[in-house]
Sequence to fold (181 residues):
Amino acid sequence: MRVLVSAASRHGSTAEMAAEVATVLGEAGIDAVVLAPDDIHSLDGWDAAVIGSAIYVGHWLAPARDLVERLAAELAERPVWLFSSGPIGDPPSPAEEPEDVAELAELICARGHQIFAGRIDRKQLGLGEKVIMTALRAPEGDFRPWTVIRAWAERIARDLVNERAPEAGAGAVDEAQGGTA
Fold:
């Protein structure tokens, strides 16, 4: 089982989340590889995908949206999960889903979408981002819920392993009866 994990990340926070998802999948015995959205041109050789994006001004970043739209037909043929990173604070705000994710999820028949709180490090922000953060009185800090992210990735791993289990069991029965799997 090979799983593609990809995330659009402006300052690295969402990419770190994607890496953690891949680590958890790997711990479950799944070959998970992290690639940037712009580096993916086909899903040949991939059995499933986890795709995420940072949320800016209520939308996914263009590289993640473009990936889903460009490979929609291939994604629809595989199990796919989506995640977003962006709300900040405690409780995380804003709580609403990004405006474009429901449409993207429907387009590819995604199995689910999870929103995780993000991280704000003002030293990494550009001038425009700093103005927006100041106007919104957004708190600085790392609000990423690592335990929740790991638990979500573990559920994905269980789903994928359970889907493969009947195939392995069927092969064993066929071999016992003298057939081939």
